[in-house]
Amino acid sequence: MAAGPRRGVPLTREEIYAAAWRLIDAGGVEALSMRKLAAELTVNPMSLYHHVENKTALLHELCLRVGEQMAPPPDDGSPWQEQLLALGRVYRELAHAHPALWRYVFNHPEVMSAQQGGLWEALDRILLLAGVPEHDLRTIAEILSAFVSGFIVSEATGGVRPDTFDQATALLIGGLEAHIRAGRTSA
Amino acid sequence: MAAGPRRGVPLTREEIYAAAWRLIDAGGVEALSMRKLAAELTVNPMSLYHHVENKTALLHELCLRVGEQMAPPPDDGSPWQEQLLALGRVYRELAHAHPALWRYVFNHPEVMSAQQGGLWEALDRILLLAGVPEHDLRTIAEILSAFVSGFIVSEATGGVRPDTFDQATALLIGGLEAHIRAGRTSA
DNA sequence: ACCTGAACACCGTTCAAGT
DNA sequence: ACCTGAACACCGTTCAAGT
């Protein structure tokens, strides 16, 4: 009875992640339990612990994998405003593809920073291109990131009407332009 | 033994809310359990259900009570930019006083809209004063609200450096000014 | 009216035992 | 090496019984 209901087929990490994914996309992070996950795989709950440290490690790993799908667009020579909008859209599309997991990431910043490494470089590049002075580059980048990720979570939870993302981005770009102009005249 | 460990003193809703509050402020929403709450009140867990429908109703009510503490500043005749900043600060201070509960609210928009009724009127008033055309008043208000509440949650979870709130607000104000200017010239 | 204990259907996780 | 069952310490909630 050792092979049990799974007839000797060895359980793999990939299978586990895929099943966890399914559960989360269907019912949110709160629908994921180790026991349901095991049932989904027709396996004893305890077998999971041979492939995964624990539930939070599993969630963490899942978030990292989503993050890896993020491909920030390269510099195509277009104006910074367009590139910023394009970057925002990449971010947003991935979030909308996995809203439940994204909400989890937003509420667990230690995961967020590990997950979204690639975005920061792209954001910095675009802000420098826009003429943001280096001394507030980091602050501006953090502010924009907080605004945009907060907006996207709001979209996912229904706190904001659909199809307002471009307008929201336009507002930020307008603010950035004013900020840069002000920095230039005072220098 | 009916009076049990609480010696006949009748349990009140107020006591329950206060204790729940304490647990949440100490350890986050995830630290609140009906059983720990009962222990805190030296009462049988089941006694709580005589005063509260269930756990989510309790949380909901708690959120509404925090929201009621929000007093949007009245129109003092100062420029809209200052009034918008003042409004943001009121919102932010309350959120920082109860960060755990706020995170919960942000992730449960049905609670959010019930809780933050007073803010919307103030926001609408300020945006009209600023000259935002009525046809995008609602959209702009939603966008600003999503940005600001997202930023505040980011502050609470450590995703953004402290003392950047005024800078963040300035960015939004700059964007709004540009938006209004654009609307005026196109009209 | 208010409180209680026992019970049910869940959790995550540990540990000793099985193949 | 991989899997398992029994067990522990938790959850929220229902329900019949107590005062």
Kindly describe this structure.
The structure is a homodimer. The first copy, chain A, is mostly helical and about 190 residues long. The first copy, chain A, has 2 domains: about 15-50, Orthogonal Bundle (Arc Repressor Mutant, subunit A); about 70-180, Tetracycline Repressor, domain 2 (Orthogonal Bundle). The first copy, chain A, has helices at about 15-25, 35-40, 55-70, 80-95, 100-105, 110-115, 115-130, 135-155, 165-185. In chain A, helix 3 (about 55-70) packs parallel to helix 6 (about 110-115). The interface of A and B includes residues 139, 158 and 164 of A. The structure holds a DNA duplex (19 and 19 nucleotides).
Summarize this entry quickly.
Chains A, B: Pfam families: TetR_C_33 (PF13305), TetR_N (PF00440). Chain A is mainly alpha-helical and 187 residues long.
Q: Secondary structure elements and their pairing?
A:
2 copies of one chain form a homodimer.
Chain A (H helix, E strand, L loop, with lengths): L12 H15 L6 H7 L14 H14 L11 H18 L1 H8 L2 H7 L1 H14 L6 H21 L7 H22 L1
Helix pairs in contact in A: 3-6, 4-7, 4-8, 4-9, 5-8, 7-8, 8-9
Chain B binds a DNA duplex (19 and 19 nucleotides) through loops.
Number of separate domains of chain A = 2
The number of helices of chain A is 9
N-to-C SSE string of chain A, H for helix and E for strand: HHHHHHHHH
Oligomer: homodimer
Give the tags.
homodimer; about 190 residues; mainly alpha; Arc Repressor Mutant, subunit A; Tetracycline Repressor, domain 2; about 65% helix; DNA-binding; HTH-type_TetR-like_transc_reg (chains A, B); MT1864/Rv1816-like_C (chains A, B)
